[in-house]
Amino acid sequence: MKGRHLVLPAIFRLIYCCGLRCKETRTLARENVHLDEGFLDILQSKGPKSRRVHISGELVEYLAAYDRRISRLFPERATFFPNREDHPYSASWLEQNFLRFWYAAFPEKKDSGISIRAYDFRHHFVYANMNRWLREGKDVNAMLPYLMRYMGHSDVKIPCTTSISCRISMEGYWEDSGTRKG
After folding, report:
1. C-alpha distances in angstroms, 154 versus 123, 144, 157?
2. Model-level pTM?
3. DSSP per-residue string spanning 47-100
4. DSSP letter at 30?
5. CA 64/CA 56 separation, integer angstroms
6. What gap in Å lies between CA 139 and CA 136, rounded to an integer?
7. CA–CA separation, 178 vs 45, rounded Å?
8. DSSP code for 154
9. pLDDT at 174
10. What pLDDT score was predicted for residue 137?
11. C-alpha closest to that of 129 among 119, 142, 113, 118
12. What is the pLDDT of residue 161?
């Protein structure tokens, strides 16, 4: 498929580095990617909510290089990650490719009974940030509202009640800090 070799590494890197929802990443419009200013506008993601997601300088450089290369194939594209018709790729396409790469990297996990999804990068993003804050001595309770806003949530409980990794991280936090367990 035209451009797939460029799209796949970039789309997974963006999901992993920013904790975006898979749909937010797949459907990202080119006009909502502001690399010169270092942010993405995520519009109408989950209901009527929109948000601005700031990205690291390193990711800006990577995505700018991707943008230059994919623009040679699709100079007038509307989507940031276009399929051959300049439409977003499907959810099943993203998941199939994620699993293909995952099991190529970890063949022993294929029949382990443990399921993995591209969406789990979003959970990992929460877990990694919480652990970084713990290492830095930051108050996780004070930082969570910022993270949840960045990720498009209005309620701090949503990702941490749905993700085992978050619960494990928070249990360690509560044990170490002497605060309540939840």
Report:
1. 16, 11, 9
2. 0.81
3. TT--EEEE--HHHHHHHHHHHHHHHHH-TT-SBSSB-TTSSBPPHHHHHHHHHH
4. G
5. 12
6. 9
7. 37
8. S
9. 45
10. 95
11. 142
12. 45
Residue among 97, 68, 92, 79 nearest 29 (CA): 79
Going from the first residue of the chain to its last (182 residues), give the mean pLDDT of each consecutive group of 10, the final group possibly shorter.
91 95 96 98 84 96 98 96 95 96 91 88 92 93 89 65 48 47 40
Task: Quote the pLDDT of residue 181.
Answer: 39
Q: How many residues does the chain have?
A: 182
User: Nearest Cα to 151, choosing from 116, 122, 118, 120?
Assistant: 122
Tokens of 35: 């690399």
First vs last C-alpha separation in the chain:
47
Q: What is the DSSP letter of 109?
A: G
- In Å, the largest CA–CA distance within the chain is 56
In one-letter notation, the amino acid at residue 25 is T
Tokens describing residue 66 = 């991707």
**C-alpha 105: how far from chain center:** 20
Residue 176 CB-density burial (10 A; 0-12 exposed, 13-18 middle, 19+ buried) = exposed
